[in-house]
Amino acid sequence: MNLLRSEILRAIAATLGLAFLTSSAGSAATDIPAISAKDLADRLSGLQDGTSYVRLRLAVKQPDGATKIVLQLQVKERRTQSAADVLYQVLWPKERKGESVLLHKADGRPPFGSLFMPPDTVTSLNASQMDDALFGSDLSYRDVIENFFGWENQAIVGNEVLDRASCVILESRPGKGELSTYASVRSWIDTRRLVPLRVEKYLPAGRLACRIDTTRVGTDDKGHSIPADLTVRGPREDSVTELVGSRITHDVAYTDRDFAREGLGEISAPSSASE
After folding, report:
1. Peptide bond preceding 119: is omega within 30 degrees of 0, i.e. cis?
2. Which of 29, 167, 214, 241 could form a disulfide with 227 if both were Cys (CB 3.0 to 4.6 A apart)?
């Protein structure tokens, strides 16, 4: 079964609070693999480039396990080193089918986007709204459009074992002109599979704003290891978000209309990603 790719939900790639089997925390330089922080970040950022089509299940739950929201989504992405277009659309339940969020990001410019509510209401999303919740989940719009692996400042700050996998801890900080609410992001990278197993995002005051844990690692249509299932905890204490990937297709043929306001009411899958 083809599953989620690591960038999408990096961004959803953020952070989580479920328990991993954790041991041997530390920052001994002798335990860190011989790869520079910049090279590691560049490789992770490069995995996001190109086009993709994803199907996933998003569930927002209360800490006691009670379900608040369940959505089936499709995600269309087009990313380069300097820009990104991302479209999230609700496929199910029927009463929410067609709800869409379109986001854009380019170097040196704050992200922006549009919110579509059927049958024909389109609302602009400006930079000040990027920290709002995506479909009522614990992910923000910023979390699914921002690529912190592409930030200027990258450093390896430690190593730790998560879920029996040896990880390096990569700290990403925005440079001049890289606008973000987050002051830093720490990612626990399984360097053997090149997969983020945990991402933590911090505000300027040092407070943890979001944690995403990879709860299952799968394989995509290109044979790459990717986070297949994610759990996200944000600032709200009354909810947790689970993301379960069911399908991913890369190298999808998109047109500019697929990422334009006038195309927001169209929810069919691209022909190159047909089942």
Report:
1. yes
2. 214
Query: For residues 85 and 33, which has the higher predicted lDDT (pLDDT)?
Result: 85
CATH architecture assigned to 22-253: Clam (2.50)
Separation between Cα atoms, residue 244 and residue 59, nearest integer Å: 9
Cβ(91)–Cβ(267) under 8 Å? Answer: yes
Could you tell me which of 5, 4, 11 has the C-alpha nearest to residue 185? 11
Please, what sign has the CA dihedral across residues 137, 104, 120, 251?
negative
Residue reference for tokens 């800490």:
63
pLDDT at 13 over 60: no
Per-residue pLDDT of 52-78, as tens digits, reads 999 999 999 988 888 999 999 999 999
Strand partners, 165: 162
Burial of 93 (0-12, 13-18, 19+ CB in 10 A): exposed
Of 96, 26, 81, 87, nearest in space to 49 by CA: 81
Q: What is the pTM of this model?
A: 0.84
